[in-house]
Amino acid sequence: MISRIGPWLLAPAFLCLAVAAVMVPLKSDAAPYAFLFDRTEARNEQQRTLHAIVEDSGLSRAELQPLLSRLLPLETQLPVALFVARESGKPIAEVVELRKSERHWLAVFKKTGLKPKVLFGGVDGKAPEPYKAAWIEYRMKREPELTDEQVRELVMLQLAHRVSGQSVADLAHDAARGKTPEQVLSRPKVAKSEASASPTAAPTRAATQMSRGKKASAHGR
Prior knowledge:
With 221 residues, the chain is mainly alpha-helical. It has helices at residues 7-22, 27-30, 45-57, 61-64, 74-88, 92-101, 105-112, 132-140, 148-164, 168-176, 181-186, 192-195, 197-220. The longest helix has 24 residues, at 197-220.
């Protein structure tokens, strides 16, 4: 019976098996969005970026996990929601609820008492695109009309500034040259001990040389 089955009938069966193999969930998928709370679960730059943003927010897994399905796609919705919650002081659950009921992020800003000004700290007329057009809109109108994408780009700029400590101006110009705020956020944080190691090394060597000079001078006497 099996020998009579033509190859054209077996092909769909093998295709189904191949698709099933591809759809086997990754370890990160077994525990939904595990990478948000554990950097070792992050498998690409986008996941490392989101992990850094969640870590900076200070929210616990218990607070955030139940809301994630309402913030899809995470890469566009989650950073803005966390930014609004922090800047407005509103609970993240309230921000998520407002996002579902409002068409644009600026409407959520208004409902939470936030002014667009919070998006433009460190941004001025010298800022390159994609920030310059948003800045002009903000400066020219009492109630600027910013797209959700413009809001997200400005939020990522502010978050990269907050997490990395780099100036907004430098980050904006780096973005124009191809180094995005997402790339900055995806990098692991440098431990303070490592950051301070190189500055202290030079003074130590200088002190050693000075000490040797004093000893040589004493022997000369």
